[in-house]
Amino acid sequence: MEIKNIFKLGFPWQTQDPFLFCVYHLDHYPKGNGELGPDDSLEERTLGNDFEIKDGYRMYHGTTVPGFPAHPHRGFETITIVNKGFCDHSDSLGAAGRFGEGDVQWMTAGRGVQHSEMFPLVHTQKENPLELFQIWLNLPAKSKFVDPHFKMLWHEEIPVVKLENASVKVIAGQFNANNAPDPAPDSWANDPENDVAIWNITVELNGTITLPKAKIGTQRTVYFYDGNTINLAGESIEPNHGVNVDAIKEIKIEAIGADAHLLILQGKPIEEPVAKYGPFVMNTDEELQNAMNEFRTTQFGGWPWRYPDHTHEVNRGRFAQYPDGTVIEK
């Protein structure tokens, strides 16, 4: 059987080892107010914890600009894919950036880092839609305490494989011999034997795509997040559903009724105990308690920015500032 099980997508999406979870943000933000916030009343919102979709969008933990002000991570990696809109990143390493419209940020938290992720509404004359995935990829015990690392995968560098009636954005791994940019150096994805792949796929109406066979031991999940219906290995799947499939078999997917948009996560499992609490992911409860205590004591190096919800200049384009001071403008 190609299909192992089918499940409804919640918030966050459930994942399989080596992934911890995935969140999908789709917010139809209005025009900006010139200060990167919405040109809209924020009354009747639970500012600071606004996760209910009102008028098509959420402010999350932001109070003036939507997003997630400074918060810590340890023991895993975040992979942030911004298909629409922008993200303003700032962290305790002194790294920063504005990325979006297809860019991907790969951050290894390792032994500990603080960062903020704000969603600047840069357009004042038109709406500011945001479509974003954030994927948490676990680190094995041997890599839990590596130095934090910040890496940008600019959309110009990410291969998009054009098929007859489908396209595949290769964010990690490879597809039909097309290799993604290198992941972060200490990532589980950095060893090809771990068979990690992240693909963002569009299948045109009435078109098909066949997912290639993966290595024995690899786990693969297909997330159908936008469209009408897909036929997957002979089974009709509605949108907002995930499917765990047998990765060592080819899987044929057909889009019915509309173009289908899919995210594929696959990899060989780490197969280690997971102890997690909020933004900390370790192997044991004792390590988890130590992580929380260390953050209380050290703040993982402190916060070098003026505000916890730091954003960049209103008219700033896409850029990355690395901890060594190197700045790349796009």
Major sheet: arrangement of strands: 1-20-17-22-15-12-11
Number of extended strands: 26
Q: What is the terminal separation in angstroms?
A: 46 Å
> What is the helix fraction of residues, given as a range?
under 10%
The main pleated sheet reads as: 7 strands, antiparallel
Overall radius of gyration: 20 Å
Query: What is the H/E string?
Result: EEEEEEEEEEEEEEEEEEEEEEEEHEE
CATH architecture of the domain at 1-18 and 159-272: Sandwich
- How much of the sequence is in beta strands? 35-45%
Based on secondary structure, the structural category is: mainly beta
Here the CATH topology of the domain at 1-18 and 159-272 equals Jelly Rolls
Q: Can you say what the CATH homologous superfamily of the domain at 1-18 and 159-272 is?
A: Jelly Rolls
Question: How would you portray this structure in words?
Answer:
This protein is mainly beta. The chain has a domain at 1-18 and 159-272: Sandwich (Jelly Rolls). It has one helix and 26 strands. A seven-stranded antiparallel sheet has the order 1-20-17-22-15-12-11, with no helix packed on it. β18 (229-232) and β19 (235-237) form a beta hairpin. The protein is globular. The mean pLDDT is 97.
Quick synopsis:
With 330 residues, the chain is mainly beta. The protein is 4% helix and 43% strand.
Tag the structure with descriptive keywords.
7-stranded antiparallel β-sheet; 26 strands; Jelly Rolls; about 325 residues; 1 helix
Set down the secondary structure blueprint:
Layout: E1 3-8, E2 19-29, E3 67-73, E4 76-84, E5 86-91, E6 96-100, E7 104-108, E8 113-118, E9 128-138, E10 149-153, E11 160-162, E12 166-172, E13 174-175, E14 178-179, E15 197-203, E16 208-211, E17 219-226, E18 229-232, E19 235-237, E20 241-245, E21 251-256, E22 260-267, E23 275-277, E24 280-282, H1 285-298, E25 319-321, E26 327-329
